[in-house]
Amino acid sequence: MGDVVLRHPLSSRIVHFVNMICWYGLFITGILVYLKLVSNSERALLMKLHIFFGAILTFVIAAYLALTPERAMLFVQEVLNWDKDTIAWWKNFGGYPYKFLGKTKLYKYIEKFWFAKPGCPPQTKYNAGQKLLGLTVIASLFILGFTGWFLYFFREALGKNGVYLFFNLHLWIAILVTLFVTFVHIPLVIVNWPDFVSMFRIGSGTVPVEWAKEHNPKWFENDVAKLEEK
C-alpha cells in the first residue's frame, strides 16, 4: 500500500470545479439583477452572462453523465448509502462542535448539550454531512435547471401563477443552497485540508493513507484496501 490513495478522479474534479464557478457566477448575476443593483443596460448584460453560465453548467453535467455514467452512479450510490453510523454522525455532528469549541472557554457553557461531544462514528467515503450536501446539490441542480430553462424557453406557457411559482423556487433554492455551501460546506472542507487539497491541487486527487484511515475508515477498509488486494 502506498502513502496516498485516490479520492477524487479527474472527471469528478473537473465537474466539481465547473459546478463551483458556474454556480457562483449564476448566483451573483442573478442576485444583482433581482435586487436591481445595476442599471438596465448592465442588467441585460448580466442576464446574458446568467444564461451563459447556465448553458455551460448544463453542458458539462450532461457530458459527465454521458461520458462517465459509472462514476456518476458511484457518487449517487455513495450519497444514498446511509447506515447506522451515518445516522449516528448526527448525534454530535461528527464531533465538529467539539473541534471548533472544545479548547475554548465557551465550551464549558455548551458542554451539556448533546451535540458538543468529541469523536465520530466510522464513515464511508463521505460523511453524513457530505452525503446530505450531495443529495441537496443533485436535487437543487435538477430543480434549478428545470425551472430556469423552462422560464427561459416556455415562460408564456406557464401563465402568471406558473411563472411566480417557478421563479420563486428558482430564487429561494439558489439562495438557501448557496448560503449553506458558503458558510457550512466550504469552511468544514477547509478544516479537512487534505481533502480540500486533493480536490483543487494540480495533479492527482489523492489523500494521505493515514488521513483516509482516520476520517473515512469504512471507505478505506471496504473499498480501497480490497481494491489493492485485487
What does this structure look like?
The structure is a single chain. With 230 residues, the protein is an all-alpha fold. The chain has a single domain (4-81, 124-229), classed as Transmembrane di-heme cytochromes, Chain C (Fumarate Reductase Cytochrome B subunit), CATH 1.20.950. The protein is built from eleven helices and two strands; from the N terminus they run βαααααααααβαα. A two-stranded antiparallel sheet has the order 1-2. Helix 1 (10-34) runs antiparallel to helix 2 (40-67). The chain is globular and about 55 Å long. The N and C termini lie close together (12 Å). The model has no long low-confidence stretch (mean pLDDT 91).
Topology, element by element:
Elements: E1 4-6, H1 10-34, H2 40-67, H3 69-79, H4 84-89, H5 96-101, H6 107-110, H7 128-153, H8 155-191, H9 193-200, E2 206-208, H10 209-215, H11 217-229
Antiparallel strand pairs: 1-2
